[in-house]
Each structure stands twice: as structure tokens, then as C-alpha cells.
């Protein structure tokens, strides 16, 4: 005879070690089983879309750094693509190649953070986290060499990039491309077959492809459910159609697959980097766009495949020195909307696993 | 018959961790040992060249945060306005570098100093006397000025300090 | 060398003192209780230091190395910091339970060290029911943890307290049954006699018993892959969430004190305690405890943590049947072999361990279960 129990409401508050930022969930728990999830967002809302209307077109770029603060280069790239589409600006070849190199390095950085945090949430006491940050440190050193800062780079400009890469950059990238594959192999040996990870993550939080399409999920979460949808192949922006790479997918769509696919994507990024570094031409790095730039009136939507999914900017211009409206299609806000479907029926520990495997960044969710 | 998940994955993980135990730690003990930052570092403080500045206020207009305050007077000297007040509130500055990039007369630079902690917020405001290039040893960062790179030391990179064999 | 001789001989001297030495029986008792408590606290601080350095090296960083020479005084600095912090008591707590919980959790950890043989006969009380005493007293800490979780009037602490009760009670059975197999071979419940009976260390004679005891012991003290009782990432510190100041220091001491207790137990029961060739006996005891602690920190650095229902399934469906099979096979071997033929047990037991673990994990390990229809 089962004991009658009552569900209780618990607050997994904005300040919590494993919500990746200030994200609040009101959970209704029956013992340990999650019965209902009500997310509450807005704790990091800074009004970036409104602030963008009071900056110059170039002055919005430092703001876009701070949206998804883990992958700043991708945010900069999305905004610059949108404005260049609006104004019809041609970008020099060297700038295109440098942008691709930066975007792929940023993808590796982001996936290292995502996988490290995933293992941290699962309980491996910071060891995979710190080892992955050690590899990320090598990449962040390169970003510091190029732009001067380690997190918010402000490197891309409308019409290209802000300055040319220094002389030491390309040899350093080649050295990095030798050091990263053995490190990834070590991580796979360490973590891929771990029985405890398999018990925690395999079969947990299965996202079916139909549900993913219904909710508008993009990025590694969608590819882990089996659909090979990547904007770099479907709607190639910049010069991605000149490179040869695969789109990895996984079959089941559980949390383990969402972790595996990030490891596979990092290896594909290494392939793109090798090709881009070999083909890097000489030339100018910025088109002749003035600092106080006035595009013609109109509107444009520019999107990229950021490390977390489809990230887009919808800019509206009325010919003045500042954007009239700048709307951000943020990946994490749309990816997080599916959390309720995935989590119901699992336990509190699984909620943390599933949440960590989706990999959001609160700067994007709340803008 | 095929056996799996009897503990071999855990054993492989344990061997990797034991390998990490015998590797040299990649740390720098901060005040005793220091790394060289990037030559293009966007430091906390600004360096201003009084001779080249004309008071055009392009830097103030391009700053997204609006931290630069300039007051000029119309005493013409050498065909330039005299800049009476040039003040940067480094507390609000986000070190984006748009001011350095937009100066048409190459009069504004970043400083390579990163140990700028102060006890009061009002001490973070830099006046023109603190920022002048002539006054004392102000090391300028090569952000946007590649000709200054030769004076600065090379950045320490992790890919060169420690390799996997260590 | 002039200073090492007396230090090595201190335990010998302490042992040979008559039992009414600085006064009557009660003076002797007070002195030696104080000696035991101070030794335990010093060893726990040493264990904390070793754990932090070791886990730092495994994460490619150095552990604490600035407080004192080589960072040795880090534990002292931590204790001082925690003692000086303000002890904030929430308003809605159940006062008597909240205040008593740290004491109820801490005292049994020290009391158990009365029967731990640091040298041959070098213990406070050479009880002839030593093992029973250890297991019984160390279960009282569970009551203290539940008091802490309930009295905190916080839902996170309550979840943790429920997990503590469920898991600790379940893991008592594999612990007891694997110790029972060792007792069958040693023939006595006294810990000192168990060490004396280990001409061949029991880890070789009882590999399955060692594995079961090690895993079940880790779950009892909520360490390494089973630290979900105070999981940082889910329930934000668990049952000692609402404690700060000196009460938190007591819980911290309990956590590492129980780890020290488990290390000493394993080195006594399975690794032949104080027996060893050249070095003094208490040094062998400490070295073996340190080896066990190294392995425990190594596991802590490497493995993610399990979920609560996976932990319960591991106890009841994996460890308990293996421990019972081990007990039955050991009983048969002890009855049929004579005293000096015990080495035959080694290959038989190792073969049995390998076969059982391979087959049982094939049968037991299912993935993707645990979802409840809502």
C-alpha cells in the first residue's frame, strides 16, 4: 500500500550553483520527482535592444559582446553580417578568412566551456572542467593577442575586422592545431565510456525531432536529435561554402548525445581551421566604412550558426547615425523553452543534467 | 559473449587522472611570477598626447558609454583649440577601444598598466594631468598602433609554455 | 637523530604506563582521551591538506602553498576563519534540534577511535567486541544529519536529510556482511586480533569483500561518487546548508573525520594495520591509512556522482547479493581448509570476484530508467 504524499513547491532560485546564470525555476516536486516546472526569467535584463538605439552603428558592437558572453566573436559576426546585408557592403577576402578563423576558434572555446560545465553539474569535482579550461586558455591567449582582451573582444567591424592579425598569430594557430587533437583524445578516454556518466545521461531527457522542430530548437541540441540542420551548409553565410566539413548528428537525442555531439563538432571545427589557415590570402582587412556610419533606410535579418544555435539580428534603419530598432533572435531563449517537456517525470538530479546539456547562457536569454 | 560496463570506463578515467597528477601544473604564482600580457592589451587607463590632440571630440562622440568629457576654450595656439579639461571616467569605461580607433590625429592610447585598483570610485576618474604622455613613464599599448609593438615584450602563450609532454 | 628516537618511542612509552599513572583511573582516562582526540584532529587536518594538494595536482594546479611552509597551515587558517564567522540562525528553525545536531553528529566519530589499534594493543580500550562497537556507534551520525536537515526548516535540507536516511540505512547491510566474512577468517571481533591474524593481508584473501566494503563505506560517509547527500550542484550543500560559523566547522570536521575513520578501518581490517617490517608500527598504520585516502581522493577527483535511485539500486541489487555470496564461499573455505593452507583461498577468491563482477554487471546495468509518468 503506497503512502500518500503531497507535492511541494521548491524554488531553484536565481542564485544557484548549477543554473548557468541567474535563472529561476519554481519546481513542484513529489518527493524527488519533478512534477511541474515554471521558469522565471528576466533577472539579467539589461535592455540591450533599447540601448542599441542610442549608440552609433559601430557603438552597438561592444554591446553585442555582452549578449552571449562566452562566444563574443559570434555575436559580433552576426551583427556585422546583418548591417552589411542592409547596406550592401563588400568585405575584403582576408577579412572573410579571418572572420571564419575567429568564429571556429570561438566555437571550440564555447564547446569546451559547455562540456566542462556539464560535467561539473554532474558532480565530477571540477577536474574535467579545469582540464577543458586549460585548453580553452590556449585559445583565449590567441584572442588576447589579436584584440587585446580575453572575454569581450569587440573585434569585428562593419566591413571587416578592426585590425590585422599580428605576425605571430598564424604560427600560433598552427601550433594549437597540433596540440588540440591529442587533448581531445585524452578527454574522450577520460569521459566517454564512464559508467556513471552513462547511467546519469544516457536515455535521460530524450528530445524527439518532431518536438524540436515544433519548439524551434536549433544548434547542437537539434543535431543531437538526428536532424542534420546547420546554417553553414543550409544557408551559407560568409565563405563557408569554400570549406569541406561534415555535420555530425547523433541518434537518440538524450543528454549523452548532446554531450557527444559537442565533442564531434569541435573536431570538425579543427578541420575548417586547418583549411582556412592554409588558404589565408593577403590584403586589406576592412572595407572603407566610416566610423560614424549611415546606412540607407531599410531592414535586414542576418543570422549565423553560433555555437549554441541560430543567432540572428534583425536591424531596421532610417538613415540616421543609430539603429532605429535592433532585435535579437537569441538561441538560448528559444532553446530553453523546451525544458518543461524534457524534465517532467525525471528526478531533481536529472533536471540539473538536462539543463546543463542544453547549454544556455543567461546573457542571451535575458538580453 | 560481449561484456561491457563492468568498470572499464571508470578505470580508464582513473588512469587519465593519475596521468594529470604527474604532469607539471600550469600555474603562475601571481605576485612573484608574472606573465606578459598581449602587446595590444586594452588596459584600464588611457594615455593622452597633448601635442597632437586638437580638441575635435571625435573620441567623446564615439564612446558608447559617454565617459570622455572634454572642455575646450577658443585660445588658438598653433591653429588648435586649447583643451582645458580632458577627463575619462575609467570606472564606467568598458575598454572597447572605439575612442582609440576613431581619433584622427593619433593622440589617444591605451596604457599597459593593469594594476589600477583604487580605494574610492572618485579616484578612478583620470584627469588630463594623469594621462599626459610626457609626464613620467607611461607605457603605451600597441592597440591599433602596430608601430609601438617593438617596444613591448612578447606575450606569454600557454601553447609555448607547457606542452603535453611535460 | 636525537629527536627522532623519543618521538618514535612515545607510543611505546604511553602504552607501558601503568593504568593509574597520573592519578587514579579517571586521571589516566582523561589524559588518554585527550591524547586520542588531539591525534585524531591533527590527522584530520593532515588529511585535509593532503586531499587539497592531491586534487590540485590532478587538476593541473598547485594546491594551497602560501599559508605557512608548503601551505601546511591552511587547515589552521580555515578553522580560524570559520570560527570567527557569524553564526546566522534562521528564524524559523526548530531550536533544540538545530542546536544539538552538530554535536550528535560529531561525538560518535571521536568515540569510535577508542578501539582503533594504532599499535599492537595501542588503543584506549581493547574491547573484544570491537567491530560491533564500531558499526553501532558510527550509525548515530545518521540521526544527527537528519536532525540537521529537519531542524533547518529548508526544503533543500529536507531533501538531503531524506537521502541521507535512505542511503545510509541501505548501505549498512553490505558493510556488515563483508565485515562478517573477515571475522569468519580472523575468528574474533576485536580489531587488534583481526590485525594479528593477518599473516596474509585480508585484501588478498577477500578481494570481493574489500571491493564491497570500500564502495559501501564510501556511500556511508557520502564521499566520492556518492556525495549526493551534500551535492553542491543540486541541493546547494544539503543538510548543513543553514549552518555557519562554528556549527559548520563541526560538520566539516565530521565529514573528514568519517573519511579518516573509514581509512583507518580499511587499513586495519584489510591491509594488516600496524604490521610491517622496519618502520615503527604506528607509522605503518598511518601510511596505510594515507594510501587508502589517496585512492579515495583520486576517485573524488575523477568520477561524476550517481543519482539517488541508482545509489539505492546499487546497494540492494548489486552489493548485497555479492556480499552474501562472498560470505557463503568464505564460510565453506574456512571450514574446509586448515590454518596454514589459507593461501589456497587467494586464487579461488580472485577468480570468483572476476566472474561475479562480469556477470552481475551485465545483468544489473540498465540505462535510461527512472522516469515516472506524471
Secondary-structure map:
The complex is a heterotrimer of chains A (367), B (166) and C (374).
Chain A: E1 8-12, E2 24-30, E3 33-40, H1 48-51, H2 61-65, H3 72-87, H4 93-122, H5 127-147, E4 156-157, E5 160-161, H6 169-191, H7 195-201, H8 209-215, H9 220-224, H10 231-234, H11 255-278, E6 298-306, E7 309-317, E8 325-329, H12 331-335, H13 339-343, H14 348-358, H15 362-366
Antiparallel strand pairs in A: 1-2, 2-3, 4-5, 6-7, 7-8
Helix pairs in contact in A: 3-4, 4-5, 4-11, 4-14, 5-6, 6-11, 11-14
Chain B: H1 8-21, E1 46-48, H2 58-62, E2 68-77, E3 80-89, H3 98-102, E4 108-110, E5 125-126, H4 128-131, H5 158-161
Antiparallel strand pairs in B: 1-4, 2-3, 3-5
Chain C: H1 4-16, H2 25-58, H3 74-84, H4 95-112, H5 130-138, H6 140-151, H7 155-186, H8 191-196, H9 202-205, H10 207-220, H11 232-235, H12 246-269, H13 281-302, H14 308-336, H15 345-364
Helix pairs in contact in C: 2-12, 2-13, 4-5, 4-6, 4-12, 6-7, 7-10, 7-14, 10-14, 12-13, 14-15
Global mean pLDDT of chain C: 85
The separation of the N and C termini of chain C measures 72 Å
Give the count of helical stretches of chain B: 5
How many beta-strand segments of chain B? 5
Multimerization status: heterotrimer
Unreliable stretches of chain C (pLDDT < 50, length at least 5) are: none
Q: What does the overall shape of chain B look like?
A: elongated
Cα gyration radius of chain B (Å): 24 Å
Strand order of the largest sheet of chain B: 2-3-5
The share of residues in extended strands of chain C comes to under 5%
How helix-rich are the residues of chain B, as a percent range?
A: 10-25%
CATH topology of chain B: Alpha-Beta Plaits
- The number of distinct structural domains of chain C comes to 1
Largest interface: A-B, 47 and 44 residues
Supply the CATH class of chain B. Answer: Alpha Beta
Largest sheet of chain B: 3 strands, antiparallel
Q: Please, how many helices of chain C?
A: 15
Order of helices and strands of chain B: HEHEEHEEHH
Give an overview in words.
- The complex is a heterotrimer of chains A (367), B (166) and C (374).
- Helix content of chain A is 47%, strand content 13%.
- Chain A has 367 residues and is an alpha+beta fold.
- Chain A has helices spanning 48-51, 61-65, 72-87, 93-122, 127-147, 169-191, 195-201, 209-215, 220-224, 231-234, 255-278, 331-335, 339-343, 348-358, 362-366; strands at 8-12, 24-30, 33-40, 156-157, 160-161, 298-306, 309-317, 325-329.
- Chain A has one domain: Cytochrome-c3 Hydrogenase, chain B (Orthogonal Bundle), CATH 1.10.645.10.
- Chain B has 166 residues and is α+β, with helices and mostly antiparallel strands.
- Chain B has a single domain (33-164), classed as Alpha-Beta Plaits, CATH 3.30.70.
- Chain B has five helices and five strands; from the N terminus they run H-E-H-E-E-H-E-E-H-H.
- Chain B has helices at 8-21, 58-62, 98-102, 128-131, 158-161; strands at 46-48, 68-77, 80-89, 108-110, 125-126.
- In chain B, strands 2-3-5 form a three-stranded antiparallel sheet.
- The longest helix of chain B is centred in the N-terminal third of the chain and has 14 residues, at 8-21.
- With 374 residues, chain C is an all-alpha fold.
- Chain C has one domain (87-364).
- Chain C is 67% helix and 0% strand.
- Chain C has 15 helices and no strands.
- Chain C has helices spanning 4-16, 25-58, 74-84, 95-112, 130-138, 140-151, 155-186, 191-196, 202-205, 207-220, 232-235, 246-269, 281-302, 308-336, 345-364.
- Classes of the chains: A alpha+beta (367), B alpha+beta (166), C mainly alpha (374).
- Chains A and B meet through helix 2, helix 5, helix 6 and helix 7 of A and helix 1, helix 2, helix 3 and helix 5 of B.
